[in-house]
Amino acid sequence: LALPTGYVQACRALMIAASVLGLPAIFLLITVLPCIRMGHEPGAAKYRRSQLGGILIILLAMCGVVATIWFPVCAHRETTIMSFGYSLYTGWIGSALCLFGGCVIVCCSGDAQTFGENRFYYASGSSSPTHAKSAHV
Predict the structure, then answer these.
(1) CATH of the domain at 61
(2) 10 vs 3: CA distance, rounded Å
(3) Is residue 52, in this structure, part of any structural domain at all?
(4) Is residue 102 part of a domain?
(5) Exposure pattern of 43-66 as b/e (b: 16+ CB <10 Å)?
(6) What span, in angstroms and rounded, lies between the C-alpha atoms of 109 and 47?
(7) pLDDT on residue 34
(8) pTM score, whole prediction
(9) What is the pLDDT of residues 88-137, one digit of tens each?
(10) Which of these, 4, 28, 36, 96, could form a disulfide with 53 (CB 3.0-4.6 Å)?
(11) CA 116, CA 47: separation in Å to the nearest integer?
(12) 31 contacts 90 by C-beta, under 8 angstroms
């Protein structure tokens, strides 16, 4: 592959940065799940973690989008290559899905005051048969 190494190295660095951003983003989003509690933290702490995780996913997607668009444009300009293979299409689809997912996470997290307040649990057999859910414990 006789391509200039400048933009190849830049695209490689962007994809590595996207991979490095992905691990803490997924860790933050896993800790926001309702089934996971970390001590006696308020709902605002989970809200901030979900917002940060969503923003990291959006940054990951932007690194992937720039790398998967910049590489074929520059490679086509230099060598007039027309076929790039399935890995490029996979990068486009993965980046688009990460961008969509990050936007959904950021937009649908709710506000910090009501985050995690409306939790219900299913009551055991000791409550009345018409009352399916009980208030927050």
Answers:
(1) 1.20.140.150
(2) 13
(3) yes
(4) yes
(5) bebbbbbbbbbbbbbbbbbbbbbb
(6) 7
(7) 78
(8) 0.74
(9) 889 999 999 999 999 999 998 766 555 555 555 555 555 555 555 555 55
(10) 28
(11) 9
(12) no
What pLDDT, in 10s, does the model give residues 27-83? Answer: 999 988 878 777 787 778 888 889 999 999 999 999 999 999 888 888 778 777 777
- Domain carrying residue 10: 4-34+42-78+87-112
Report how many domains make up the chain.
Answer: 1
- Residue 44 vs residues 4, 57, 97, 111, 112: alpha-carbon distances, Å: 48, 20, 27, 8, 5
Q: What is the pLDDT of residue 78?
A: 77
Residue 105 in contact with residue 54, Cβ under 8 Å?
yes
Give the up-direction half-sphere exposure of residue 31: CA atoms within 13 A in the CB hemisphere.
19
Is residue 92 assigned to a domain? yes
Residue 55 lies in a domain: yes
Residue type, 106: V
